[in-house]
Amino acid sequence: MYKSAAFITENQNEVLDFMNQNSFVTLIGFDGEFPVATQVPITLVINQDSIQLFGHVMNKTDHCRAFEKHPNVLVMFTGSHAYISAAVYENPQSVSTWNYKTVQVKGTIKLLNPNDTYHTIKRLTDQYEDPEKSPAAFHKMNEDYLQKNLKAITGFEILVTQIDHVFKLSQNHSVKNKENIISNLENSGDALSHEVAKEMRKIL
Fold it and tell me: pTM for the whole thing?
């Protein structure tokens, strides 16, 4: 991935928070001939000496078969992004660019047995559904229905071995340029541009 010292944070918690906030990821593997990918929600589990990602995939798919053969995987966490026009720079005779935040994680994947898959789905559901208030809470689901649908999926656990990130928000520009960029993004009709403007204001 493209990396520059200007776009790297030393705050590991900031990176982990970003991963938690953008937990619908692109999971990439290799089938021996081509890369394979799928987009899935994950749960991030942080222990004292390890970081793990838990989720599930459909059985009998190209990516599921690839993960069985080759355990090394790449996981991409993607946040808001926006085109940055040089037209708003103090010197518009410059290169336009793109602002974005992303994290790439490398690790080894292990496919889980049915019992561990069951608990992975429970953990993931509890992450997004209020266990106490939601009528779709895991413990309120019909057990026969759960067991029937669990036959179609396989849970996975990824042990994280490397985390890289780029938080590119025009940190290498003057304060005036940053203010102009933010104003331009805020005046845009694009929701993602508004989110990038908010991120830029946090560090201005």
Answer: 0.94
